Amino acid sequence: MKKSGFVAISGRPNVGKSTILNGLLKEKLAIISEKPETTRDNIRGILTEENMQIIFVDTPGIHQPKNLLGKVMLTRAQSSIMESDIILLVTEARTALGEEDKNILFRLPDADKKDKPVILVINKVDRFKDKERLLPLIEKASKEYPFDEIVPICALKQKDTVRLLEVIKKYLPEGPLLYPEGELTDRSEEFIIQELIREKILTETYQEVPHSVAVIIDEMKESEEKDVDILDIFATIYTERPSHKAIIIGKGGEMLKKIGTLARTDIESFLNRRVYLNLWVKVAEKWKKDPEALRDMGYSD
Ligand code: GDP
Ligand code: MG
């Protein structure tokens, strides 16, 4: 019997979604195929084991949309929740089920009409010095919503992600393997690199520049330097306002440097090779109101 399914990973920024995904896909970070014709544009990773395939879909940060791009992102987040077979709601031990989580809770299927498993992942339990605080939290969570499972983990520990994977497998429906083995994701490399950079901007600037920033890869080429195996990546960050550009660059370029370093580290582990990342920041007013420009940037719907 074969099993397969789509698993949506949702949750506020910074709770550890990417860390969990990377942990789950750990040994599979190898082949990335280019399939620009696919329409499911928020697939982040595919895990294939014998007779089993899990397709992880990302739910872009859920906020109240303020413009067209915000709406597109929200629609995508919402549709990946609706279309998935299993929903993972990731939260952080210390702030679990606070106000911001509620924003996401009410986007889950209604408690009385729940038609698919919803798993609550309480991440960063290592930050709880007092382990006794976990139990009341689990109790509170189960009163809040009929979660099928509540799984406390520390995503930094491989053994915890393995345990989470076992739970996910339990709920995976019967079905054929949908993608060829060895495929990590069906999004283009470029798109994922753009998203990795964008994510760093949003987390490092503490969302001072939400939605109004886009990242475009201008060029990717083998380094011309002799005897090195480095990929040169040139990317432009587009902001809507000069003030946002200033925030991203930071004092003396400090912020841009930090964003670049963090993004490069992620890109290197994603591509499994050394990378030189060259970032450029430009102001491009009003692009986010233009559906055509959005399509060009890969935010089509
Ligand atoms: P995302 O925005 O939800 O994708 O969150 P990330 O995966 O980027 O994680 C945000 C930060 O939390 C990173 O600095 C991670 O290293 C850190 N982090 C993730 N999981 C854990 C955990 O279990 N324990 C601790 N202490 N930190 C974690
Ligand atoms: Mg992330």
Describe the 3D structure.
- This protein has helices at residues 17-24, 68-83, 99-105, 134-144, 158-171, 189-204, 242-249, 254-271, 291-296; strands at 3-10, 43-49, 52-58, 86-92, 118-123, 149-152, 213-222, 230-239, 274-283.
- The chain is built from nine helices and nine strands.
- The strands form two sheets. It has a six-stranded mixed β-sheet, with helices on both faces.
- Helix 6 (189-204) packs antiparallel against helix 8 (254-271).
- Residues 27-41 have low confidence and may be disordered.
- With 301 residues, it is of the alpha/beta class.
- Helix content is 35%, strand content 23%.
- Magnesium ion binds next to helix 1.
Helix/strand layout:
Elements: E1 3-10, H1 17-24, E2 43-49, E3 52-58, H2 68-83, E4 86-92, H3 99-105, E5 118-123, H4 134-144, E6 149-152, H5 158-171, H6 189-204, E7 213-222, E8 230-239, H7 242-249, H8 254-271, E9 274-283, H9 291-296
Parallel strand pairs: 1-3, 1-4, 4-5, 5-6, 8-9
Antiparallel strand pairs: 2-3, 7-8
Bound molecules: guanosine-5'-diphosphate (GDP) and magnesium ion.
The site of magnesium ion (MG) has 3 residues, from helix 1.
Overall pLDDT score: 80
User: What ranges have pLDDT less than 50 throughout 5 or more consecutive residues?
Assistant: 27-41
Strand arrangement, major sheet = 2-3-1-4-5-6
The fraction of residues assigned to DSSP E strands is: 15-25%
**Helix/strand order, N-terminal first:** EHEEHEHEHEHHEEHHEH
**Associated small molecules:** guanosine-5'-diphosphate, magnesium ion
Our Rg estimate from Cα atoms comes to 20 Å
> Helical amount among residues, as a percent range?
25-40%
Indicate the overall shape: globular
Q: Report the count of strand segments.
A: 9
**Largest beta sheet, briefly?**
6 strands, mixed
Query: Alpha-carbon distance between the termini?
Result: 34 Å
Structural class by helix and strand composition: alpha/beta
The helix tally amounts to 9
